[in-house]
Amino acid sequence: MRADLQGAHVINYLRLRGLLAAQPPTDPCNARARQHATAIARPAFSTAVHTFIDVLLGQGGTSSRARSPTTVENYVGAILGTLEAWIADGLTDPREITRKHVEDVLDPLRGDQARRLHTALRSFFRALKRERLVLRDPARSVSLTSSRSVPTALPSDRLDDPRDRLMVALVAIYALLPGQLRRTDLDRSKGRLHVRRPIRMDHVIYLDTFILRLATAWELQSHRRWPDSANLPSNSRLTASGSLPA
Does 135 fall in a domain? Predict the structure, then answer.
C-alpha cells in the first residue's frame, strides 16, 4: 500500500463493483480481549485464551449462553497476569498447570481481588476442559477461605438500662429472637421463662442465676418507674400483661 494511495476512492470503486465484503461490527471489549490473547508469547496459552473467549461468546464446540463483551474482557484481564507469570516460570502449555499452581497464585490475595481471580480461573479451566484442551480442571476443587467480619462490640455505656441488659443477655445466651421476646412470661420463683409460640406448646427456658439477677433489677426499675401501675407483678411472677418489653 503506497503512502499516496487514495483509500476512499479505492473503497468506493470496490463497493460499486460488488467486490467489497462487509466486515461485521466488532465490539471494542471483545476486540481488546482478542488482542490480549494474541499478544501472549506461548502459542498454547494464546490458543487457550482464544478458545476461552469463544466459549464465553457462545461460540465453542458446545452451545452455551453468550456472556456480555464487558464480562469477556474482565475475565481475560483477570487471568492475563497469572498466565504470564506461569509462562515466566517456564510453563509452556495449560495442561502443565496443577492445583498447586492455582493455590499459589490465590494464596497471597484477599477480598475482591482473590474472588475475581478465583472466579475467572475456574471459568477458564472449565472452558478448556469442555473444549478438550486440558485433561483435568486444576481449579475445580480449589476454594477460597471466606473471612467474615466480626460485629462491632456494643459499648458498655449503651447497657445502663436494666431492661436492655436483660434483653441482650436473653438474646446472647439463649438465642431468643426479637419476636420471641415480645411473647415471654417470667416465673422468677421457679427460675423459668415461658416463650409463647402460636399453635405450638410453649418453649420453657430454665434461667441461670445471672439472668435471674438481671430480671430482678428490671422488675425493681419497673416498680420505681410505674409505682401505681396495676400491671406490675404482685409476687415474683410476670403474667402475660407483664411480659418482657421489646
Answer: no
- Same domain flag for 164 and 234: yes
Residue tagged 497469572 (cell numbers): 82
Domain end, chosen from 95, 130, 165, is at 130
pLDDT at residue 3, rounded to an integer: 64
Q: CB–CB of 120/53 below 8 Å?
A: no
Between the CA atoms of 104, 109, 114 and 120, what dihedral angle is there, to the nearest 10 degrees? -40
Name 28's Cβ contacts closer than 8 Å, sequence gap at least 6: 69
What is the rounded distance in angstroms from the CA atom of residue 235 to the CA atom of residue 224?
15
1-44 residue pLDDT tens = 566 667 777 777 887 888 877 777 678 999 999 999 999 989 99
Give the rounded percent of residues in the chain with a pLDDT score beyond 70.
Answer: 83
Better pLDDT: 153 or 121: 121
Element (H, E) at 184: strand 184-187
Asked if 120 and 165 sit in the same domain, the reply is: no
Q: What is the pLDDT of residue 242?
A: 42
In a domain, 3, yes or no: no
Q: Of 50, 94, 41, whose CA–CA distance to 72 is shortest?
A: 50
